[in-house]
Design brief:
The structure holds three protein chains of three kinds.
Chain A lengths: L1 H36 L15 H11 L10 H18 L17 H9 L1 H11 L4 H32 L4 H7 L8 H4 L1 H14 L11 H4 L10 H25 L10 H22 L5 H35 L1
Chain B lengths: L1 H27 L23 E3 L16 H5 L5 E4 L8 H13 L13 E5 L8 H4 L6 E3 L14 E3 H14 L12
Antiparallel strand pairs in B: 1-4, 2-3, 3-5
Chain C lengths: L13 H8 L6 E5 L11 E7 L2 E8 L7 H6 L7 H7 L4 H16 L5 H30 L4 H20 L8 E2 L2 E2 L5 H26 L2 H7 L7 H7 L4 H4 L7 H4 L20 H25 L20 E8 L4 E8 L7 E5 L1 H12 L5 H10 L4 H5 L1
Antiparallel strand pairs in C: 1-2, 2-3, 4-5, 6-7, 7-8
């Protein structure tokens, strides 16, 4: 009992530290990639190659005056950023970084992650609505519709992989996959991978699905009225959510910590970084999808496809059971 | 049948997304186009139209070619020029006697006021850099400088007396005869 | 948030309150601008929204009114040219041309042929720069952050080219009554000759990255359909009208300068939506390159300013005239009336953006807010010329 407790404590501390670090690194990576795609240097003044820029940004955000607009509900207004950031720490706990390297041994790890990531919707809604700002309200309404809609294909595609692996425990799912890419789940479930990536973009409000914070239409959407650390928390939560989503994709589809020569955690970090880089590239390449088209994509394409995928997977898993037993 | 055709079309449309990624991926690896000013010099400053400057004479570069006719001040759309003419010098007693004699004979007295202006006040905050003054100067006394580093802390920093500026710039040019005209700064 | 029906609670200004008087119960009144990230200038649009749908839109103008026409009344003709460079920063040389063309028409001044060619070359370069700016800004509105950087890379080349004869990068006052201020020297001509194949090589990349992109196509196809009759009744010109199928280009309809000698196509589109306007402008970039090529070949030697060009004290002879040119946004017209005195008696500037913007209120009814922004971008508005 005490061993479990110590393990969770160490894990939580490590997660908290790494989430902060991830935020800083991701800010730098995003701005550098944006710069190089646009043929300009990105940050290069602060620190060598701009490496201290995120630190300067963090200091700036911390030092700003915390401002609440007139007529905004104080409790809900300040609850929203905190609520967006809190569940994120919990989502890192079941992720296996290596063989046996996970903080919590939950045999419903996947369910835990999916359940708690749904809480972020609430924070967007509260943030937009409590701002007493029409732009914020519009952004919040869009965010709720979008997040609720994209939960379903996310769930169904992940469920297909759970069928193949036979359990909802993330550690087991990784163990089932082999060392080499042709043994990974992406080979047996390519459609589920694509659906998962698209739904993940929708869930985390990343481009091209970033309407809730559509800069050119709604000023800043649901976080129009936030400045300083309030905005900082929303920002950090978005990046942390991105990391969680990429980690789950790695675990489910790309073989987790499996890999030829290097130790497990290195491969895990490498794969997650590659997926994150892909998501960052998506942001700087594509224009924004219109809101009703976004919902159309979900209800008309992703949902039927993921249901079909699930049915096929169930069918083939049962078939494999019978043929192997025989 | 139509629905299947539509489905295929959508899938082929999605290929355009991959093409877009290829383009940005290619530019990600290409060299940057930014000139890291001010550590690197800009290369398009030769043709820049900076603030006005007076042109010095050929024999005496400290004295502007301006003949104080005032055409530029009249022509300026923004009323940013004021030319202050010089007063006639006080004549010496011999000159006065000579002038009185000439007047008695009915000859015309030559005007001994120097032509160049006493002050040439130029308000850069009003100037629109149109060039009308420069083109209409009969003496060719105005030109645009190539000074891209004009900066100041207050509005008064941009109220020039171009005669003084000419003197200063000629003096500094004399002191460093080897200094190149280019303004690339090496910090 | 449905407190709009109770007007005392809203601290709206005159326009919002006026607008809200005829608003439906329970609708949301939103101000797009005057400070808005969809940078077109300082434009304010009051929209009445029912959820995400725009029920009614009303632009409020005048935030950028700088009284150019009043300034013309206290200036002589030669002194007014810098003003014309600042009316529309996108296509400043076309405005220059409209004004000096009107003055020359009134006074019967004949411009030397080389000056006509120089005017055409620089004006078409400016048109390409204006369309590139529109393209980049439009995509920024739609959420793509990189194409504006690529467009500005090309635009930098053009601005450097145009800096050689004019000395400025944006607000040119290069044309004079009777010609242009300075000739294009060999350096400038060499740069233009190098620029044309470079621009041609960039256009396929723009097509790959943006025009064929399925997300963009879904955003602008079918959006903002403007019937040709609506265009005519509002007086829309330029790519807005040509995108609806009306084949009207001032360079063909009322030819001026050397355009009759140049062989170029006027693109029109049968799709009457934002996609049609987009295509028209992209093809116009290619056609401008063609025009510049032909002008470079046909350009004769000679003066660029007529002998005895008007001095600043030149008085415009008595009379009135109207002269129109094709700008990047549409038909730019200048009406000059003079009573023979020192200053121009009346200068009326016809801005194409004013008529194009009036279309917006009609066309954006019943569309989603995102579509309204897409329509506004496709009209290619530059607010300084609308407010003058």
């Amino acid at each position: 009992m005490p061993a479990e407790f110590i393990r969770i404590l160490i894990g939580l501390v490590a997660v908290a530290a790494s989430v902060g670090l991830i935020g800083l690194v991701m800010v730098w990576v995003e701005r550098k990639v944006a710069g190089h795609v646009q043929r300009r240097p990105g940050p290069y003044e602060v620190g060598p190659n701009g490496l201290l820029q995120p630190l300067a940004d963090a200091l700036k955000l911390v030092g700003k005056q915390l401002f609440m607009p007139d007529g905004a509900d104080p409790i809900l207004f300040w609850l929203a950023p905190v609520l967006s950031f809190l569940p994120v720490l919990l989502l890192f706990l079941p992720l296996p970084l290596g063989d046996g390297l996970f903080t919590m041994d939950v045999n419903l790890g996947l369910l835990l992650i999916l359940a708690f990531s749904g809480l972020s919707v609430l924070s967007l809604l509260l943030g937009g609505w409590a701002s007493n700002n029409k732009y914020g309200l519009l952004g919040a309404a869009r965010a709720v519709a979008q997040s609720v809609a994209y939960e379903i294909p996310l769930l169904l595609s992940v469920l297909a992989v759970a069928f193949v692996s036979g359990s909802l425990d993330l550690a087991t799912m990784v163990k089932e996959q082999g060392t080499w890419p042709w043994n990974w789940n992406i080979m047996t479930q390519p459609l589920a991978f694509l659906i998962y990536i698209v739904s993940a973009l929708g869930e985390t409000n990343r481009a091209p699905f970033d309407l809730p914070e559509a800069e050119s239409e709604l000023t800043a959407g649901f976080h129009t009225e936030y400045s300083g650390m309030g905005f900082g928390l929303f920002f950090l939560a978005e990046y942390a959510n991105m990391v969680v989503v990429c980690s789950v994709a790695t675990v489910l589809f790309l073989g987790g910590w499996h890999g030829p020569v290097l130790p497990g955690p290195v491969w895990f970090v490498l794969k997650v970084s590659l997926l994150m880089l892909l998501l960052v590239f998506f942001r700087w390449t594509y224009p924004r999808v219109r809101f009703d088209q976004l919902l159309n994509i979900n209800w008309k394409w992703l949902l039927p496809l993921s249901v079909a995928n699930l049915l096929f997977t169930a069918f083939f898993v049962k078939l494999a059971q019978y043929t192997i037993v025989r | 049948m139509n629905a299947i055709k539509e489905a295929f079309k959508t899938v082929s449309d999605l290929w355009s997304l991959m093409v877009g990624l290829k383009v940005t991926g290619k530019y990600f690896l290409e060299p940057q186009r930014t000139v890291r000013y001010p550590w690197k010099a800009l290369d398009n400053t030769d043709t820049y139209k900076g603030h006005l400057e007076l042109v010095g004479g050929v024999k005496d570069p400290f004295k502007p070619r301006c003949i104080s006719c005032g055409m530029c001040a009249l022509a300026c759309p923004s009323n940013c020029l004021t030319v202050v003419k010089r007063k006639a010098p006080k004549p010496t007693p011999e000159e006065e006697k000579a002038m009185a004699e000439a007047k008695a004979n009915g000859e015309k007295v030559k005007d001994k006021t120097p032509k160049d202006p006493e002050q040439f006040i130029y308000d850069y905050t009003l100037c629109s850099l149109c060039g009308t003054c420069m083109e209409n100067c009969p003496a060719g006394a105005l030109k645009f400088s190539k000074n891209i580093y004009m900066a100041g802390y207050s509005r008064n920093d941009f109220l020039f007396d171009l005669v003084v500026k000419l003197r200063e710039s000629e003096a500094s040019a004399e002191q460093e005869p080897a200094a190149p005209a280019a303004e690339s700064s090496e910090a | 948030m449905t407190r709009n029906a109770n007007m005392e609670h809203l601290a709206g200004d005159f326009y919002t309150n006026n607008f809200a008087k005829t608003a439906k119960e329970g609708s949301l009144i939103l101000n797009l601008g005057p400070q808005h990230p969809s940078t077109h200038g300082v434009l304010r649009v009051i929209v009445e929204m029912d959820g995400e749908y725009v029920m009614r839109a009303e632009p409020v103008l005048g935030y950028l009114h700088r009284m150019h026409e009043k300034m013309a009344e206290v200036k002589t003709a030669a002194q007014f040219i810098p003003n014309m460079g600042r009316v529309d920063y996108g296509h400043a040389l076309a405005w220059n041309w409209a004004f000096v063309g009107a003055a020359e028409k009134l006074a019967g001044i004949e411009v030397p042929e080389r000056a006509e060619y120089v005017r055409t070359i620089t004006c078409e370069c400016n048109r390409i720069a204006s369309h590139l700016l529109w393209w980049g800004a439009y995509l920024l509105d739609l959420g793509a952050f990189t194409p504006i950087m690529y467009a500005f890379d090309d635009r930098e080349k053009l601005l450097d080219i145009l800096q050689v004869p004019t000395g400025s990068r944006l607000t040119y006052s290069y044309f004079r009554i009777g010609g242009v201020a300075q000739d294009l020297n060999e350096d400038c001509l060499g740069r233009i000759r190098k620029f044309i194949p470079w621009m041609r090589s960039r256009l396929p990349m723009y097509k790959d990255l943006v025009s064929d992109n399925i997300i963009l196509r879904k955003r602008i196809e079918g959006v903002g359909v403007i019937e040709p009759d609506l265009c005519r009744s509002f007086g829309a010109t330029g790519p807005v009208a040509r995108g609806s199928g009306i084949n009207y280009d001032v360079r063909r309809a009322e030819p001026y300068s050397i355009y009759p000698k140049i062989d170029f196509e006027v693109p029109t589109s049968e799709l009457m939506d934002a996609r049609g306007r987009y295509d028209v402008r992209m093809i116009e970039i290619e056609q401008s390159l063609r025009i510049i090529e032909q002008c470079l070949e046909l350009m004769p030697e000679g003066d660029v300013l007529v002998k005895g060009a008007p001095k600043p004290s030149w008085k415009v002879p008595k009379g009135e005239t109207y002269f129109a040119v094709e700008g990047g946004r549409g038909k730019i017209g200048v009406y000059l009336a003079s009573d023979g005195g020192k200053n121009l008696y009346r200068t009326k500037l016809r801005a194409p953006g004013y008529c194009n913007l009036s279309l917006f209120a009609e066309v954006s009814r019943g569309t989603i807010l995102a579509d309204a922004v897409a329509i506004l971008g496709s009209l290619d508005l530059i607010i300084p010329e609308i407010d003058r």
